[in-house]
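Dear colleague,

Following up on Tuesday's group meeting, I ran the structure prediction for the two-component complex that the binding team flagged. I've pasted the input sequences exactly as they went in, so you can double-check that nothing got truncated or mislabelled along the way. The structure tokens for the whole assembly follow below. Feel free to forward this to whoever is handling the docking comparison.

Inputs:
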Amino acid sequence: MQRKNITAFDVKGGERLNDSASIVKSTKTLHALTSAALVLPGLLLPSVPATAKDRINFQYSRYQEGERNLFGAPNTLKPITADVLHGSGLFSLTDRAKFSFGYTQDTWSGATPVTITPLATTGGNRPYTDGGIVVGASPILNSSVLLDRDLNPIGRDPLTKELTGTVDTRSVLVMTSASPETRRQANFGLSYEWNEAALNVSGGFSRERDYKSSFGSIGGRMDFNQKLTTVKFGGGYTSSDIGAILDHDSSPYITKTAYLPQIVRRDNSEILRGERQDWIVNAGVAQVLTKNALLDANVGYTHSSGFLENPYKAMSVIFIDPQDLNNRQLTSIPGDVRALLEQRPNIRNQVAFNTKYIQYISPLNAALHVGYRLSVDDWGVNAHTFDASWVQPLGNGWTLTPRIRYYSQDAASFFRPYLFSQQKFIRQEVDNLGRQIWIDQDNPSRQYFGSNQFDLVDQNGSPVDGFSVRVAQKLTSFDAAKLPDNFSSDHRLAGFGALSGGVILSKMLGKGVALETGFEYYTRASSMQIGGGNNSFADFDYYVANAAIKFDMEPAASLPMGGSKTSFESHAHASSHHYHKTPPAGIMFGHMLDKPGDFMAGYRFMYNWTGGNMMQGANRVDDQTIIDQGCQGEPCRFVPTFMDMRMHMIDLMYAPNRWLNVMLMPTFMDMDMNLRRLPNAPPAAPGVHEHTGVAGHETGAIGDTYFSSLIKLIDIPGHRVHVNLGLSAPTGEVDIKLRRIAKNDGGLIHFGMQLGSGTWDFMPSLTYAGEKNRWSWGAQFSGIKRLEEKNKSGYRLGDVIQTTTWGGYDVLPWLTALVRGAYTWQGAIHRDFDSFNARIGPMDFPSNYGGEFWDIGVGVNAIVPKGRFAGNRFGFEWIEPVRNDFNGFQLNRQGALSATWSYHF
Amino acid sequence: MILKSFSIGSSRFIVVCALLIAIIGLIGCVNVAPWERGNLAKPQMELDPHPLQSEIQSHNYSSREAAPSHKSSSGGGGCGCY
């Protein structure tokens, strides 16, 4: 792309070049033209990135769904949100070979539909009250409904559930909520480029608690017709393992008979197992039509097999007693509403045809992209997608891209909001003479027959004294063969239309750094389906906002989109810098940029591991002591078994002058922990969150954001001192809640699982660094002072003081080995949550935070001295706790890993 | 054999194939010299000018719609079971 951009410049800026008559520039122009001619068709294939320049991207995105329409039922559940962190990179291994990687993690939580029922049932979203006031709704999956003789539901008030007497055919989503869950995906790719062809292979995996998949693909392209035509082909395979932990709250109310062989029990949880395979092949052609237009067309075929269900979606089946139907005296018929796990076909074949036309709009230097996509499948879901975008370079490196999209799909052939079945859900068995069967409860092998328990006969026809035997009805479940083979009420398989629009704004900052932000609003409505639809109960909308930063690793060649405002001035390349040695990777704000105008971008990963024994002070503590003393007078019921915290930080540092650096560090946090029930702990008090099952807790989203100014105090050969005045802005959430379970609110999740401090914090530090020949050394004093009395959840984290000192030795000119010692003091949490928290274990009590910690760190710092990746710095450090003295009762610290990458522009 | 089961019918597919053949037929007629390709080389003329954005969009669409994912050959994306 780099060379391609240069061509764009030459074509537009030709006159300016002639005027300047610079030999250097002319030579470069010639070179650029020639190389552009060689690589041009590469641009037709974003899937083969071999002509792209080396680059690193970071992106954060937030998905926020709107509230669903519950037709008058209280809707207090938070709609679904998802926080997504993405990092990716592309590196040249040789002139023709490239390596790419990507990492994505998303954490989602919020309200999700579990089934659809008629609005007129006694269940659905059933209101619950607190002190006589309706404060929310519980999902009630099994309920009853009254139907007229045409099986139309007779309405009920959504709040009181009283019959209204009039037919109400509306359906409603039954909503449940979910505690946060995290998915992680990594993928890797290799590509190789020939003059008129390219080949790429890639693979990766995606991991979440209930769904693990691995995938691989191979693709390539060939150029023909003087590179005006490119033929592309690809194929891929995905293998997925499903281990859905069925919701312990709703599972008892969901009928799972069809899946019993696939359900295993572990630690009080039911796990539904399944496997799934997806095969994909596609082929396409990209064709230059004129010097201002090109066309791209693809056909793709997907074959999926195995467990294709959504394991958390149930179908509401209304069971009707045939006797009631046949009884003409009845003016209304009772229906027994039951939730059955959905059943989809085990095979799906999809074909998609995709085409895109791109036209250059010369007077505006813009491009119009118009696309159409048709997909058909053997489930009956035929979908049309139309989209258009306008890519408008605005000058000075800005590009604005408005975009619009329309989508319409037909419902799957087996989609129904709910089903009727003319049989009883559970009925008493009858023998072949039509007599009802009873069982002797004292001797289950003995059966009796008759219409009631005082008029029974035994197998031989002899009368039985109904008072002398204990009998019970012999019950049998519904006949599954009378239900359709496949059924689903997942609103994704309904017919609907969707309209979305958005805008992308990008800015090339120069020095190889580009910012990009996107916003999209999406609205789905059944009425927007081509031909119209009638499923308006599933209408919803969402928006997505994202921000990305992109670093080009060859800054000298970076040109803004549009190519009209650039120069060939080469920026001083990274390899020309003299580098000071950097402190160990775990030290923040530990070095400064030297030259005014210098810019540094970096990424910092920190992993913090706690696990092992529970500790009191400096010593291991037994379970009984925790039960008795760990929860401030209340008995403790749970302790954590482990907790992992991962922190991703983007370092952006700029030197406006010789003595000042400014720094911005957005962070992304994610955590997971699991709990262990203390043996002999007392049962939960009524109305208190009870942690059950194998699943732990996860949280993840944006953490706090750091700003800081670094001021150079002393800079003499071999010795440097600087002070850092930092602020931490409370951008991380501190009011994350656990979901409501079994009529009990989960309440705020443990202090340590919240994603930020919630307060503005002052973070000063003073750093000294020295170096001589191959040796380097230094020390840092740092602290965190909370600037507010409490955060919005009512508490305040303790202040922190740390002192550390290190020494390093250059094992090789580019590799430094480091060792350091650190002492940290952290105060306990002040105040407490001001709203409900379940207080189930030591981690829910403010006094069980903080302490004094003595650590040893070992690490290496490396800098790539020359070649393609010259100037890239890497650092790794492992922190090993030597002595811990905890406040109160805490899980032991096991260590911490820091890894850093940085690059000077 | 798969195509028979598509409710939209094979006539639509024939149209699609005819379009493809027409596109291939066009190839012979086109001639754009390398020095005329300046506009085509501009970033805004790339097939996907904003790959980070289209990745997010297609991930959201595929978790909310039943059509196959836009990035259908790359795999991944997880359950999207919410």
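The longest helix of chain A spans residues 2-20.

Cheers,
M.
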